[in-house]
Amino acid sequence: MGKGAILRRFLLVPPTLFGVAVVVFVLLRVVPGDPIAMMIPPGASQADVDRLRALYGLDLPIFEQFIVWLKAVAVGDFGTSISRRQEVIVLILNRLPATLELVLVATLIAVALGAGMALIGAYFRRRAPEWGIDGAVAILLAIPDFLWGLLFILAFGVLWPVLPISGRIDPRLGAQFATGFYLVESILTGNWSVAGNLLRHAILPAVALALPLAAILTRVFKASLGEAELQDYAQIARSRGFTRGRVLLREALPNAAIATVNLAGVQLTFLIGGTVLVERIFSYEGIGNMAVDAMINRDLPLIQGLVLTFAVLFIALNLAVDLLTTWLDPRIQHG
Amino acid sequence: MNPARFSRRSVLGLMGGAAALPLLRTPFVGSALAQASTLTIAYNVNLPTFDGTVGASAVNPTIQSFYQAIFDPYIAQNADLSFKPGLLTKWGWNEDRTKVEMEVREGATWHNGDPVTAEDIVWSLERAGKPETGNPIQFVWSKCGNYRIDGNRITGDVLEFEPTFFKWMAFLTGYVLPKKYYESVGAAGFEAKPVGSGPYMVDEFQQDAFLRLKANPNYWGGKPAFETVVFKFIPDPTSRVAEVESGSSDIALEMSYEEFDRLKAKGFTGYATPISDIAMIFINDVGPMLDKNVRLAANYSIDKKAIVDRLLRGYGVPIDTLEAPGYAAYDPSIKIPYDPELAKKLLADSGYSPENPVRFTIQTTRGFKPKDYEMIQAIVGMWRNVGIDATIEVYEIAKHYELRAADTLAPAAFYNWGNSIGDPSTSTGFAMFGPSPHSVWDGKEVFDLIAPLWGEKDEEKRIAGYRKAAKFIAEEGAVIPLLQYVQPIVARPGISLVPQASGMLLPQTVKPV
After folding, report:
1. Percentage above 90 pLDDT, chain B
2. What is the ipTM of this complex?
3. pTM for this predicted structure
4. Which residues of B touch A283 (CB under 8 A)?
5. Which whole number is the average pLDDT over B124-149?
6. Which of A145, B216, B228, B471 has a CA between 20 and 30 Å from the CA of residue B176?
7. pLDDT of residue B17
8. Helix, strand or coil, per DSSP, at residue B40
């Protein structure tokens, strides 16, 4: 991808976000559920209902509501959450680091697991370990992330309670942080006991999120490794007396990785989407968990803010993958 | 290179090792059990905001447990919904109901050490009564004003008589806030560092994660038994069960009755208490529901006991009016019999039969309350036997509120109705009084029975009036009361708690045994 193509991708970001904003805004007002009807107390009169509707700007026509909201969003004001009475942008920024850290840990697990299984499978081609890995991949793909979460809670929370099954950190620790990136911060400051506690809390939800991605990575990476092993450069290396393991690691792996990175980027968006249910199940304090509450409470400003945040994450991720692929594969740059 | 090969022996060895893993049962490091002075509660909802007197969340009954731990209500409630002194030790009206009189507890202090004063009470009441503060129960608090303070005594003028004024002082938005502190730090400062006068003080709060409280050593009601209380916000019921089962939490509430029974069988202490929350079916007086015979037949053909026994494993109390046992206007003489033959006869009088059934839609949530959809399925089956063919429409609870406020619910609509002050105005009143945004019944007779009761100054006459209205509603079949819910709470062995009919879980009632 040349500089022009990269510039085009950047220029497409604002209209993409605008499209997302329009769809979300209209959809939320079309689907059943009036947030004002949910909050009126017993004994409220029609005047009370009208007052509340006006307070949240829901008395205006949808188009006017959208213009008001869009103008505010343009200057970074996402409005005030109906259910939490706090600024949406503050709520999201407070919770986003938790989700990003969870996604990071999950991605590392998926990559390590996926690459490891792919290499073993490729090395033991047409033998029992490969068949075992193929079978495991099929199982990992068949079971969705939230179901893995429930299974882990049963296994590691009840049957063999070795890991915490809820939250992001032990409430009794009383650890203080300067940023929302608790794990990164505690590692950088060398606070290993807190980092360990955070990792222990993240491990089950992260593995639940990682397993489906690891399975896809295994399948694609193993196939790519197989193809790369058949290429001339790999065959020449073998004929020069290099061991199969060395050829696999030194010759086939870098080339096979390019195709895998591209696919992993796309699949990573599914992993981020999966945080909504997985965070809920593990009571993890990220934006996914908050999104469920926002939907239940019909907290329109918060839902709109969260959907836009997810959209920005997806766009940024795709852009990063494109740039990474370009950097890894010179052919794309020159193409 | 000679790649490693799996032998039958090594595979069997690995399988054996894996099978033995569960037997290791390594105790969870930092378990709640390991710290006797800490009580950990797996709670089903998140705390949205600390100010329980304003905003939409202030009328959410399930979060009142947090507020009741940190703040004091004006008037407290016993476990059975009866009232007892809180920060007010005396309260009442004068003879002609034109003034309210209150006496403030002496010796109570805020968490920052300041004394709780009559000024705090008056400021809290006046703030709650102002529309601009956003108190959802403002329509009650604004009924009194012009408060005057004399030492620890407060007198106020009744601007418009509201019989439930003092009852609301024990429930939604009925909390006293510290005037001096709130005014010095503002709303945002209060949210960041809340100060109450309740048995527990806020130690740390992580939204969507946990709330950690420390015992208030100076609490006027005595220091609570546990030094530290941690509320973990765990909305998923499976995770809550796992929390208590693994020892990560000491108490969990609101799980399926199947899980409740299973945990009890494993040695956990189970509390199953009827609470002030009922299941009911709204009847909208439109279409076929304008026919009294159809409404009564819909009532008489439901075997509520069978529903409780078979679907809820016996955890529920069948009811015949919207006034559950324990409510002020409960009348045990009002009965709606299970009589399918009578239902058939009534329908036949209106020209309906199992072969020629009356048809309408019944709306219900699915999963919002325990077995809600299954209950409606069972009811539709019972109805079919007598000549009612109801089509089930599943909707979300948000849609229910919207339709109810617009008086456009289907002829029958399942809902649950809470009433933690136990006053009939909050159940029969708001649910059946036509002009209320919560009612879909427009019948004039019910309107005429309830309308004079809103401002009735004679309490006995008011309660009697609601009993009369409830009886008429039962005779008309204007609503289908189903059952009073039972709240399941599970606690680890070694602790006891006092379950509340209000449905709250109060950490100050939990004690080691």
Report:
1. 77
2. 0.76
3. 0.83
4. 208-209, 232-236, 239
5. 91
6. B228
7. 42
8. strand
